[in-house]
Design goal:
Length: 270
Amino acid sequence: MMGFVIFVETRKYAMINASLCDEILVLEFARPEKKNAFTVAMYTELSQALEAADQNPAVKVIVLHGAGDAFSAGNDLHDFLAVDRTIEASPGIKLLRTFSRLEKPLIAAVNGIAVGIGATLLFHCDLVYAQSSARLIFPFVPLGLVPEGASSLLLPQLVGHQMASEIFFFGEPVSAQAAHTMGLVNKVLTDTPVLEFALEQAARITHMSTGSIRHTKALLKSRVAPLKSDVHDRIEAEGVIFNDRLKGPAAQEAIAAFMGKRAPNFTGMD
Ligand code: COA
């Protein structure tokens, strides 16, 4: 049994803590006072950190983690209102594209609530470990939006159309144990801190053949011609509808309701 890894090299982005030790890069979402909700700056930093890691021969495996008691509360709702986005310029779509193209193994250590893109990014991780207290929430329909991150393709592949409809329509929290049962989470940790376990698994990967891991991931993700998956196309298709709906009355009402700490009223809205 390994102990905690001691970090020997650290790069500080503004809101992503990047720590590299023994070929394991830990990227920590560092906005705990807002449950690690992603701002535009965080999306950009995380995309940059992932792209740099994929190119850096000193990194063999990447671990994602949230600071404090949350993994991530998803897109910052203030940014949703403030940012006039197109699909080309959307930093969330750019991050999702980066996730879907990443060649190196990616492990998520889900330490608490994972909402929106904080949950859909898990579909792009190779291994997902969750603390037993973690909850996944896909709140797109309650926000007047549609699923993103190719989750409308990948969730039904795991659980079937009916279960996926229930999860997306109602947006109710999915427990770590339920996520394990559906196959999205590899292991639920009760006593061991999830980051500690994720680092142990990451350390095992650093001792394996880099080429074997890279090719196996590419095969599993159907990125090898002629397997070619349609994950990338789905991210784009969802993004068009998502961005369109984000400007519409239902999403504006849902976000205003969250900020006003009241229930949304979608009467008369599409
Ligand atoms: N965007 C902006 N601020 C957010 C946020 C988000 N997505 N999620 C949480 N916050 C803020 C809260 O407004 C609060 O700020 P305040 O202390 O200034 O009031 C702070 O983070 C703590 O959140 P709080 O709601 O008090 O924590 P909680 O543990 O009771 O609930 C959540 C956590 C994540 C379940 C809840 O905050 C939530 O539902 N957030 C919205 C998630 C969401 O819809 N994301 C968009 C997905 S597309």
